[in-house]
């Protein structure tokens, strides 16, 4: 049940409201959120969220409304439980509407169940008392008032272990505490204690505080900053609830007084955006690159043209990267869009980067640089605001810079006076001003035209690939493959595949002569080298020696060898380059069986050497292939990286 | 006052072309198309010299009886072609240059949008009035670019 209700703001079945119901409910909701001239429209200041689903009904008026429905308190408790307000801790639109439907159900005599709201119901009846209107004006103070009688803190919310608990307990003791003194915490929680008790106190406190809603709200905003950190998961869920709740109810937001209310970012949202920013880019004062942002925003499943449009709106300086305020603006637009709000023609003033930077200075854990910057901003911001927005929204616009900066009272007065004179803002004028401002900003960046493509290439491409690791200097140069090393047991094999050379073979004199890069020549040289080795041995062994190292040559030699087997190898093989052809054979036959054995051992060893060299050869071949491939790959990359401007 | 502005991609297909809505807009399209040859010729004439040294503004490509066609090419071989009315008190060269510069700036802004794939048409579709809930409406992809071109067609900037 509760799950369904909670899922009502989650992924539950959509709440179907008829036309009349929608009308009525939105009206009631608006009343409860208090579209008063004072606060920005919803009860608790930190719930002054402009985003559609963010407006929450303060528990005070809600409770009063519920009581006006003349249902027993027990039923009301049930209803509030069911609608999920207890779960999420506040009356969002979803919860409110579900609650209203449940009230209607209860008034019609149906049991208070979620299923009962699925059927057609008459509108809930409320005995409107004029206290309702009173309640409306005490929005700012309601925050504390509502918190006061709420003894139990939604415990599951306070996993963050902030000071909220203590604050709330303090507040319970002193419900009429001045809002200036009591730091706010999470949005008003629905209370379980009898409604009447707390709200009478509420009302009195509200009325007291009404005269000073602004000052009340302003310091509120600031202390909320630190405490909004604990809203980490809440805004997340909140966002989720936003998205789903407004897929359910597509009420046009109460635009009467605050036409750009959807475009204002609340503290919670701001915090959430900042966290998301940080997850993408750890340094809050630098930017997110275009591609990173693209990937991130694509996850929102909006269409590409819309995302492109949002980007166009939010990337004010058109640099292809998003700073933190730009990112918040973009995120906010995406959230709004997902909630069904049409995208504005121009960037609303509350989403302008300067505004955002001024309105929401970074929480104290951010770098001080930014704080100093944001402090200097409002000084510029105010005249800027006054120039651009001579409408009602100035009130709201100025609130935030005022609230967060140490402005003099004079400034506040001046702003308030303009607020009072302001008329409802016409959003259609928005496009003119942002465009003007954009063009007036007069592209101070120095465009180097050639940089565009490079930047793009760089943005798109990765870093130039690190050059491939140089192959081990085993064979690239002539000296590296030193047959000395190959055949000397003292030197470790340069290649892992090499076996220790056969110890019997004497060191090769000047084997480096035989070194060439191409292994094609290895064969004759290898042939030569062992053949040189064969010099020292009995001459007759030359021919057999000459065979093993070089297979291709062996074939040639074999017939010759067989033919000339009985001949003796010449002693001057070292001079003979024509290894493939006849070797001068020894003329003397001094063989004996002992020599035969020696020959055989030599043959064996040569075969081993041959095998080793053959393996070496194949490995070198392999390496050559790889190097070729690398070269081709590098050439391709070079081709790509080269500026496109090839004539 | 440009009567036609076109952005041609490197491969010589149009990314964006827009004319003052008069009769026979096809004529302008044709003029732009023929001007591509002249552009290529000028580019190659500038020669094998390093691209950086090449001037981006190409100047008057060719005049016709009623119109003059100016060209501009970027470093990534994207060409801007502008057709202006000859009957205007002759626009000075630097005015044309400044118009091209603005066009280039706007084009770069479109490029900066990560959701724009280079090589796509620079489209500015009209918003389709639909229900708020439905995501049926299309968004302008390059409003700023479009508005810049519009302003160029209205007045010399």
TrEMBL record, chain A:
Pfam families: EH. Residues 599-640 form a coiled coil. Gene3D superfamilies: EF-hand. Keywords: Calcium, Coiled coil, Metal-binding. SMART domains: EH. Residues 163-195, 218-261, 399-596 are annotated as: Disordered. PROSITE patterns: EF_HAND_1. GO terms for cellular component: cytoplasm; plasma membrane. GO terms for molecular function: metal ion binding. The keyword Calcium applies. The keyword Coiled coil applies. Residues 528-537, 561-579 have a biased composition (Polar residues). SUPFAM superfamilies: EF-hand. Residues 262-357 form the EH domain. Residues 409-428 have a biased composition (Basic and acidic residues). GO terms for biological process: endocytosis; endosomal transport. Residues 499-510 have a biased composition (Pro residues). PANTHER family: EH DOMAIN (PTHR11216), RALBP1-ASSOCIATED EPS DOMAIN-CONTAINING PROTEIN 2 (PTHR11216:SF64). This is RALBP1 associated Eps domain containing 2. It comes from Pipistrellus kuhlii (Kuhl's pipistrelle).
From TrEMBL, chain B:
SUPFAM superfamilies: SNARE-like (SSF64356). It is found in: Cytoplasm, Perinuclear region; Endoplasmic reticulum; Golgi apparatus. It comes from Pipistrellus kuhlii (Kuhl's pipistrelle). Belongs to the TRAPP small subunits family. Sedlin subfamily. GO terms for cellular component: endoplasmic reticulum; Golgi apparatus; perinuclear region of cytoplasm. This is Trafficking protein particle complex subunit 2-like protein. InterPro entries: Longin-like_dom_sf (IPR011012), Sedlin (IPR006722), TRAPPC2L (IPR044760). The keyword Transport applies. It comes from the Eukaryota. Keywords: Cytoplasm, Endoplasmic reticulum, ER-Golgi transport, Golgi apparatus, Transport. Its main location: cytoplasm. Signal peptide: none annotated. One of its GO terms (biological process) is endoplasmic reticulum to Golgi vesicle-mediated transport.
């Amino acid at each position: 049940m509760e799950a369904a209700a909670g899922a009502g703001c989650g992924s539950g079945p959509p709440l179907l409201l008829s036309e009349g119901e929608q009308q009525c409910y939105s009206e009631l909701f608006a009343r409860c959120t208090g579209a008063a001239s004072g606060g920005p429209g919803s009860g608790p200041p930190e719930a002054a969220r402009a985003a559609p689903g963010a407006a929450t009904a303060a528990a005070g008026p809600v409770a009063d409304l519920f009581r006006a429905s003349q249902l027993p308190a027990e039923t009301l408790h049930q209803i509030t439980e069911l609608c999920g307000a207890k779960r999420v801790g506040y009356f969002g639109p979803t919860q409110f509407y579900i609650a209203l439907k449940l009230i209607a159900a209860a008034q019609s005599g149906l049991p208070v169940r979620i299923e009962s709201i699925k059927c057609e119901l008459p509108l809930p009846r409320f005995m409107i008392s004029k206290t309702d209107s009173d309640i409306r004006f005490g929005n700012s103070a309601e925050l504390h008032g509502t918190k006061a009688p709420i003894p139990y803190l939604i415990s599951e919310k306070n996993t963050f272990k902030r000071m909220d608990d203590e604050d709330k307990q303090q507040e319970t003791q002193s419900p009429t505490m001045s809002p200036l003194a009591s730091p706010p915490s999470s949005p008003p929680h629905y209370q379980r204690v009898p409604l009447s008790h707390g709200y009478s106190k509420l009302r009195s406190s509200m009325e007291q505080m009404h005269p000073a809603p602004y000052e009340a709200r302003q310091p509120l905003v600031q202390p909320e900053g630190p405490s909004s950190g604990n809203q980490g998961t809440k805004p997340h869920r909140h966002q989720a609830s936003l998205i789903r709740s407004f897929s359910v109810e597509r009420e046009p937001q109460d635009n009467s007084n605050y036409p750009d209310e959807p475009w204002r970012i609340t503290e919670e949202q701001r915090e959430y955006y900042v966290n998301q920013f940080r997850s993408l880019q750890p340094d809050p004062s630098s930017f997110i690159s275009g591609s990173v942002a693209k990937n991130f925003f694509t996850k929102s499943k909006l269409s590409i043209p819309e995302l492109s449009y949002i980007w166009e709106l939010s990337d004010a300086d058109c640099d292809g990267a998003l700073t933190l305020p730009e990112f918040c603006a973009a995120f906010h637009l995406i959230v709004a869009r997902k909630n069904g709000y049409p995208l504005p023609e121009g960037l609303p003033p509350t989403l302008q980067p300067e505004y955002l930077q001024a309105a929401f200075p970074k929480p104290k854990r951010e770098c001080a640089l930014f704080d100093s910057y944001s402090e200097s901003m409002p000084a510029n911001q105010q005249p800027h605001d006054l120039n651009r927005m001579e409408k009602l929204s100035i009130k709201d616009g100025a609130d935030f810079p005022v609230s967060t900066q140490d402005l003099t009272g004079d400034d506040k007065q001046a702003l308030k006076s303009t607020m009072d004179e302001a008329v409802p803002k016409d959003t259609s004028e928005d496009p003119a001003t942002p465009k003007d401002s954009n063009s007036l900003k007069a592209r101070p960046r120095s465009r180097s035209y050639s940089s565009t493509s490079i930047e793009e290439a760089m943005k798109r491409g990765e870093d130039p690939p690190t050059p491939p690791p140089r192959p081990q200097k085993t064979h690239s140069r002539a000296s590296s493959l030193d047959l000395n090393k190959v055949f000397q047991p003292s030197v470790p094999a340069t290649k892992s595949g090499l076996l220790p050379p056969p110890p019997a073979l004497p060191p090769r004199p000047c084997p480096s002569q035989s070194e060439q890069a191409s292994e094609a020549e290895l064969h004759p040289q290898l042939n030569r080298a062992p053949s040189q080795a064969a010099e020292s041995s009995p001459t007759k062994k030359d021919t057999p020696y000459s065979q093993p190292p070089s297979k291709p040559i062996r074939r040639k030699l074999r017939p010759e060898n067989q033919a000339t087997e009985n001949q003796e190898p010449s002693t001057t093989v070292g001079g003979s380059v024509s290894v493939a052809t006849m070797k001068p054979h020894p003329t003397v036959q001094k063989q004996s069986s002992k020599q035969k054995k020696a020959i055989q051992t030599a043959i064996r060893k040569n075969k081993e050497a041959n095998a080793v060299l053959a393996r070496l050869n194949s490995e070198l071949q392999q390496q050559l292939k790889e190097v070729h491939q690398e070269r081709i790959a590098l050439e391709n990359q070079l081709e790509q990286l080269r500026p496109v401007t090839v004539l | 006052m440009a009567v036609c502005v076109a952005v041609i991609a490197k491969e010589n297909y149009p990314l964006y072309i827009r004319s003052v809505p008069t009769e026979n807009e096809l004529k302008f399209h044709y003029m732009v198309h023929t001007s591509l040859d002249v552009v290529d010729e000028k580019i190659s004439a500038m020669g094998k010299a390093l691209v950086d040294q090449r001037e981006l503004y190409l100047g008057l490509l060719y005049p016709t009886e009623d119109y003059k066609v100016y060209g501009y090419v970027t470093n990534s071989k994207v060409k801007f072609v502008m057709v202006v009315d000859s009957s205007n008190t002759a626009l000075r060269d630097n005015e044309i240059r400044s118009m091209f510069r603005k066009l280039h700036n706007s084009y770069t802004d479109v490029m900066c949008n990560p959701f724009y794939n280079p090589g796509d048409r620079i489209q500015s579709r009209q918003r389709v009035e639909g229900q708020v809930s439905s995501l049926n409406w299309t968004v302008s992809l390059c409003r700023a670019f479009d508005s810049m071109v519009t302003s160029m067609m209205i007045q010399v900037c």
